[in-house]
Design a protein that fits this description.
The protein is mainly α. The chain has 8 helices and no strands. It starts with a helix and ends with a helix.
Length: about 180
Amino acid sequence: MNNRTVNALQRLADMDARLFLALNSVHRHARVERLIRAISFSGDGYLYLALGICLPWLFPEAGTGFLIAGLIGFLIELPIYWVLKNAFKRRRPFRVVKAMAPALNPSDEFSFPSGHTTAAFMMAALVSFFFPLAGLFMYGWAALVGLSRVMLKVHFISDVIAGAALGSLIAWLAITALLPLAILG
């Protein structure tokens, strides 16, 4: 890499660290931390399973499309997520900023991209496509999941931004994969 690229990456890393520290100085109260943990927990996958079961039952046509797109999405998301995590091997914030202890134990060693945020934005995009009235709520929830991961000290802002972009792209790919099925149906 040339010096200009290295300098740009260093400025980005510095900005990421400053934003991380600023966000983590906001919540010092136990009630706020419990709320942040609950928001993060909502992105662990149980909600996705519940939506996959309930939506086809409540709304057979749109719910079934959502379920199939979700399954396709996770078939795309999981290997990409694993490859990116192991290719970048970005250390988690609490490993970089020694004064910060994580508020929870992350499920894996590396931080880039945020898997919780990737899945949350993928689900937000899929729900928004099949149930447009729920779109604003779902995107707000997905953004809170990403923010919670930073405030729990397990991700940098750039991990969350990358996860949001990746999740949105994967949702688009999953919906696009359904189009031939809709034409044949």
